[in-house]
DNA sequence: GAGTCTGTACTCGGATATCTTCTGTCCGAGTTCTCTAGG
DNA sequence: CCTAGAGAACTCGGACAGAAGATATCCGAGTACAGACTC
């Protein structure tokens, strides 16, 4: 079980985009330089966030990415699932219905108990991430650096 | 993020092994037939559980696998982590220390805030799985099938 | 008849290919700004 | 001097290779039982 590193990039990245001056966008080049990330690959993950309705993208010289909604309405869970997908990491293959002591289909109306156990854990994980909003992510940046960040974003906004 | 299917196999498998008559082992062939699984690949995961101290393996004609400890002392979390590893699915690459607005090392004594958020979610996931023991897994098998299972295990024990 | 020895059959364990998924990259479509030319 | 037009530069988006990990498999090492042989 491994999370894509795009999750880390986007959790940091959305926190940066959220600091952009109102009405301005952050170009992916600016974001890539911010953390010294490969720009082309970063694009892939940004695109996923646009599809998920978390960011909006505008093209052209003054284009870039900005939040699609209020930062308080966007959760870390949404960001993670935009990249990793919302499917559970545990996929029940119904092996109980196979083999020598197969469970007859009429007893399989309810999901497999193992599957329930795993899903419950997954829900606990999701709940934890749902409690964190982009506002919280913004607060994670040390204050001294926040000023530098905002200055840089303002300088790159056109 | 995807869990190996070995997790499903072993959660079911340990539940089966736990039903073996006292003093007997379950051969991997018997376990493979139980759910119609590829025996050779199943071996890989069983080995992982032996390394983790969850099962003990004995060779020879009457050999096989049995629980290394009391079923009430073995948690689902142990089984999952024996296969997937105990590392967090989120690995912090410390990208905050890179790029144009890099955080100076003296401010990085504490772990990155993003990392903390993800680790908290991971701990919630682990806690949920830690609450489930092998005894619980045994109870997940419907009673009517449990009798058939025990009979089969007794017939294959030598 | 009892004990011992040898052989066989059965078990698990490590090393080895194949394939899907993540990682990384490139070039094309679209838009806005700017510069220039004309009125 | 002002306005309109065309060009250029900058943006994002989808299609294309390479690498790492999961999946699947085989053959070898070790052990307990069973049979046969000897005393």
Automatic annotation (TrEMBL), chains A, B:
Q: Which GO terms describe its molecular function?
A: DNA-binding transcription factor activity
Q: Please give the coiled-coil regions recorded for this protein.
A: none
Which InterPro entries does the annotation name?
TR_Rrf2-type_CS, Tscrpt_reg_Rrf2, WH-like_DNA-bd_sf, WH_DNA-bd_sf
Gene Ontology CC terms:
cytosol
**What name appears for this protein in its UniProt entry?**
Rrf2 family transcriptional regulator
